[in-house]
Design goal:
alpha+beta; 12 strands; 5 helices; about 200 residues; about 35% strand; three-stranded antiparallel beta sheet; globular; five-stranded antiparallel beta sheet
């Protein structure tokens, strides 16, 4: 065929079989060189098999690009929140105060969990937080942090980072964002918020 159309072909399979078939499909594509349109709601699947990704939202194309472009340089807040895990920061968050470059106007702020830097030293310049939960995911550790202003944040640590700086539930830590993506809020998207909400 000139074009191969695949509509969620691995949808009903277990995770291990899906991973094996992704590798098989990628090898087949590289050998046969046929244009393939692969529909999936699994972002990891799209990142692994695609040369180009088209992110759609309510029938509208939000962004087209390579997996690296889509992940590292999302064009819209939807793409940022859809592709890969992400924390959306409140403009009232104490972490917002550490970002002078986005103080000029209202922004939607997004922080990937792997871009959360955690320090245990009280002399750190980070924002105070408490470890609420620690989840071992195998290849990485996921920690839920409660900021001193009440906001919550997810952080991902490599196994090596966790071994060098183990965390405990209830522990006081200090967090800083390494990379934050800011999207200016359009005037049509702004809503009134009651004081104290």
């Amino acid at each position: 065929p000139q074009v191969l159309l695949l509509d969620e072909p691995f949808g009903a399979l277990d995770a291990k079989v899906r991973k094996e078939l992704r590798k098989w499909l990628r090898r087949l594509h590289d050998e046969v060189h046929v244009t393939t349109v692969f529909v999936t709601h699994d972002q990891e699947e799209a990142m692994e098999v695609a040369d180009q990704i088209v992110v759609m939202n309510q029938g509208r194309i939000e962004q087209v690009g390579s997996p690296a472009e889509i992940y590292d340089h999302p064009a819209t807040p939807f793409v940022m929140s859809f592709v890969g895990p992400v924390n959306e920061l409140s403009p009232r968050s104490q972490l917002f105060c550490q970002l002078p470059e986005v103080q000029a106007g209202p922004h939607q702020l997004f922080l990937r969990p792997h871009d959360v830097q955690i320090e245990v030293n009280p002399g750190s310049s980070g924002v105070s937080a408490r470890v609420k939960e620690i989840i071992h995911l195998g290849r990485e550790i996921q920690a839920e942090l409660i900021l001193s202003d009440g906001g919550s944040l997810w952080a991902h640590l490599s196994r090596e980072q966790y071994a060098n700086q183990p965390l405990q539930v209830g522990q006081q830590v200090y967090v800083r964002p390494k990379v934050v993506k800011a999207f200016p809020v359009k005037k049509t998207e702004m809503t009134a918020m009651p004081v104290g909400a």
